[in-house]
Fold:
Amino acid sequence: MNIEFSGKIWFWRGPAPWYFVTVPADESQDLKAISSFVTYGWGVIPVVARINNTEWTTSLFPKDGSYLVPIKASVRKAENLEEGDTVTVQLEVGE
Structure:
């Protein structure tokens, strides 16, 4: 399954701070429908993600009915991204 969407980068200031983009509701529903086939534990879904020219392997985290795409520091640096930037994210979900 391949998914593409746009969203804003936001910063979570929790005990382990991280940057994320939230997968929109419709795409999150599609992911939830296949999650039992692709998850490897507590609902996370392994994906290959891409923003512009940068591709990385990560896992989507379920949160409040949606999924979150973690945006690594190396990705933000390579693409010159900051909190609040709107990005187009491509996801390849393994099955």
Q: What stands out?
A: The beta strands are 2-12, 18-22, 45-51, 54-63, 66-70, 86-93. The CA atoms of residues 13 and 19 lie 9 Å apart. The chain is about 20% helix and 50% strand.
